[in-house]
Amino acid sequence: MDAASHHQAGGEQMSASVTVIIPTFDERDNVAELVERAAAALGGVDGELLFIDDSSDDTAAEIERVSASAPLPVRVIHRQRNTGGLGGAVVLGLSEARHDVCIVMDGDLQHPPELIPAMLERWARGDADIVAASRYIGGGDSAGLGTALRLAVSRAATAVTKAMFLRRLWRSTDPMTGFFLVDRARIDLDELRPQGFKILLEILVRGGEHRELRIAEVPLAFDERRAGASKASLRQGALFLAHLARLRFGKMGLFALIGGVGALANIGIMWVLVHLGMDYVLAAVIGAGATIIGNFVLQELFVFREERKDAPRLWVRLSASVTFNGIEAALRIPVMALMVETWHISAVLATAISLVVAFFARFLFHALVVYAPRRRRRTDATDAAAVTDAESAADAEGEPPADTAALRVIRAIDAEAMRPGEL
């Protein structure tokens, strides 16, 4: 039976058969505890554990040993070739799973199996195809990342990713999480092209190519690693950036191209005015003003054309864009002047440097703020009443409060947009 057919009217509790997919890499010491805790979390649910193993040690043999006494079916598929990295392992697990309802989690015990019942309960309401465990909603905690650097990199990567896929990821606070439930019947596995760690991002962007995927979230307290070593590395970071570029090079690429054209125009206007005898600061102000308007027009036509229909009105977008760019220019020009006076470099070179640094902040602001989708107003009174009842029930059940768009934008801009160097 298709997993979606289990949904019952009115959000009633349902039973669903579940496959828990666990990709592993040299995590032998975690297997016994993970199986015990996952089996306890599933309780009386009809389910199985499916390990996709890329280990170079005897993790696969340990899984087979533990499976003999496990209270539920435990399978292991050992891959001889690590195709697609962790994402490739998850896609293989999705294709080999015996059930449509699949929960993906890491094998290092940083994803607590005890959260599985909450994920199943949230999915049982029938209004979500994916339930993600988020570190960034009320009740969530990312302390398990360890260092402040890892946390900063994670938050920065999240902000950049959301900015590049605004409409698909707007309702997701943590598209980089590796702990999530997905209804396999709602995604097209053939569309997935995994590379590296961030498989949920791949599913949300490619898996929903022909239909809108509905996402819900539950809070995740990210635990510390018990055994094994972190797979994060500079190579994985490079793979992630390359994956982002493949998924949506066009949007950021067009934004960069328009910014480049604007920068050249800015420098050209300034060069002409300076050579006509105008003071370089006044020339920079005029050049910035001209390019701010020109860039906005080009972004409307080519970069955010699809987002315009869900975004605020034209005059609101224009006002926000001009205001931000004006403030940015007002801050940038004194910095440029400081570089000229202290570093003794040309005004043109100083302007070029400041424009490159400002690019990332501009892209994040326009994607997350200027073209942020408006909340659709509900015109059907019955639907509005039903939503109110559902929200009241959610509050009674202790679900974390809604993470509003405004709060997410404020956090994103405060935490990530002002750190362009971390990209």
TrEMBL record:
It comes from the Bacteria. PANTHER family: RFBJ PROTEIN, UNDECAPRENYL-PHOSPHATE 4-DEOXY-4-FORMAMIDO-L-ARABINOSE TRANSFERASE-RELATED. Pfam families: Glycos_transf_2 (PF00535), GtrA_DPMS_TM (PF04138). Residues 19-162 form the Glycosyltransferase 2-like domain. Keywords: Membrane, Transmembrane, Transmembrane helix. This is Glycosyltransferase family 2 protein. Belongs to the glycosyltransferase 2 family. The chain crosses the membrane at residues 254-274, 280-302, 314-333, 345-371. Residues 255-370 form the GtrA/DPMS transmembrane domain. It is a multi-pass membrane protein. It is found in: Membrane.
